[in-house]
Amino acid sequence: MTSEKIIDILKNGKIHLSCELFPPKQGAELQNSLEIVNKIAASKPSYMSVTYGAGGSTVGYSAALAKKVEDNGMPALAHLTCVKADEAKLAEVLGQLQGFGVKNILALRGDIPADMHGEEIGSFAHASELMRFVKQQGDFCVGGAAYPEGHPESGSLEQDIENTKYKVDAGVDFLVTQMFFDNTILYNYMFRLLRAGINVRLGQNPTLNRKTSGILPS
User: For a designed S-S bond to 190, which of 65, 120, 197, 217 qualifies (C-beta 3.0 to 4.6 A apart)?
Assistant: First the structure.
């Protein structure tokens, strides 16, 4: 069964639920994680999101989980980060995911370790650069992170919107927000996006384990 691109799922105007999976840090726990995928799949979420360890530390397990999700007949949203990663390694990971039938990538910069120096950051310094690279590697649907209350490193809400526009210009198909508790924050954010000429599908990440998607800025 061929899974869908998440952008096509979000276009139907319905509210969608997804689950977020965290790969194990030890190989002995992988089988248990694969069984959990089967159990979650029975509840029929719209898609399953699979995280990616810092610096690609869980890349093999992340790919295995994404494949299991696809084998269950639903889209996997595979996270991919660029901190401490080079183009060759990222291209290899994308090729593997593509071979597993994964069509959806959440492209993120990733957290920068406190003791890391600038020259160690990797081939890409920003998520927007990674997004453009992913688009060049295949027919992927690419998602990105959005911050209604501003990214802590952005300096201002205006600068955060500018950074979001870089992602849109790089080809991002949809955005997933950070957690928030006040809907007014989201509505204000949607207005700022539209004012900046940004009109993409927008979803929320309200907990560590569950997401609602399909909220539209237009």
Answer: 217
